[in-house]
Amino acid sequence: MLLVTGITGHTGRYFLQELINNKYEGPVRCIVRQSSDTFLLDNSGLNIEKVVGDIRDEDFLDECMKGVNTIVHIVNIRHTQRIIRAAIANKVGRAICVHTTGIYSKFRNASEEYLNIEEDLQDLTASTNIKLTILRPTMIYGDVCDRNMSKFIKMVDRFRVFPIINNGMGLIQPVNARDLGKAYYDVLMMPIESAKNEYNLSGEKPITMLEAFKLISENLGKRTTFISFPLGLGVFFAKCLKQFSFGKVDFIERVQRMSEDRCFSHEDAKKDFGYNPEPFEIGIEREVAEYLKDKRQ
Question: How many domains does the chain contain in total?
Fold first, then answer.
């Protein structure tokens, strides 16, 4: 029995599509919320069992683990410890957990929580037989529902003058959700003894923030003027915005991380399961086209 969390989410939907495309034959138990859109699940043609509940409920999780031998945990890194504790209690043999390359950030407020989670996982699994593989995507994009490039697309479309931090020279390596869905499936299908404990899942190659913004502007058909601000000033404005919005708008971490390089090698993934992400130029053209189509409707 395969247990999946987050299968109706952004990258989870592409993982489900891989299961469908490859005619996955085993039983799949999917944890969903009452409000989840399960149309694709219900019409997948797979051996799907839906369980509705809250993964913060430990008793519910314990019931979900009955008869499970493998977990693909996509929904949120902050739930991983609870998932793994329930898995260990029910003698689940393997867990594939989607985390984040945010763990590598030089800014403590961005990485500390993720570091603590993974250190706790090492302690939890040290004396068990569960095989844990952590997947770390970089900045995820690919559809207007993503939380990264979709926001930048809207901002570039709206403003003729666009602020950037430190001349926009910070490197990023955005990864398309389609590539992630395939990667999750490929790791799942690897023999358990062949999978490494962790893989970075980055985009094809690094690009600068400025290059990414220019591609967005070009695909929008806009003429955008980019004006550079020093990091300190950007953080100051972000803190002011957080204060004036009573904490509802918090871009401090995002502004800070725009000044650091966020590019990571995916060589292990390429070597072990043929990971081959598409170029950002192709993915962002598709996403901007989707944005413009929705805008016209």
Answer: 1
3-state class percentages of the chain: helix first, strand second, coil last, to nearest 5: 45, 20, 35
Helix axes 149-158, 209-220, angle to 10 degrees: 60
Is 208 part of a structural domain of the chain? no
Structure-token pair, residue 66: 């009955």
pLDDT digits (tens, 9 = 90+) for 90-143: 999 999 999 999 999 887 777 899 999 999 999 999 999 999 999 999 999 999
DSSP character at residue 230: -
Cβ-proximal residues to 133 (8 Å cutoff; 6+ apart), any chain: 94, 95, 96, 97, 187, 195, 196, 197, 198, 199
Residue 222 in domain = no
Cα 18 from Cα 182, distance rounded (Å): 6
Three-class DSSP category at 32: strand
Question: Does residue 83 belong to any structural domain of this protein?
Answer: yes
Residue 18 maps to which CATH number? 3.40.50.720
Closest to 69 in 3D by CA, of 25, 36, 26, 102: 26
In a domain, 138, yes or no: yes
Q: Let me know: does 222 contact 56? Beta carbons within 8 Å.
A: no
Q: For 63-81, how does the pLDDT look when each residue is reduced to its tens digit (9 = 90+)?
A: 999 999 999 999 999 999 9
Q: Sign (positive/negative) of CA torsion 133, 138, 139, 143?
A: negative
Phi and psi based region of residue 38 (left: phi greater than 0; alpha: psi -120 to 50; beta: remaining): alpha
**Residue 153: CA count within 13 A, CB half-sphere:** 25
Q: How far apart are CA 283 and CA 144, in angstroms?
A: 12
Compute the distance between CA of residue 92 and CA of residue 90 in angstroms, rounded to an integer.
Answer: 6
For the entire predicted model, the pTM comes to 0.92
- Domain holding 193, by residue range, is 2-142+175-203+263-277
Residue linked to tokens 């993915």: 283
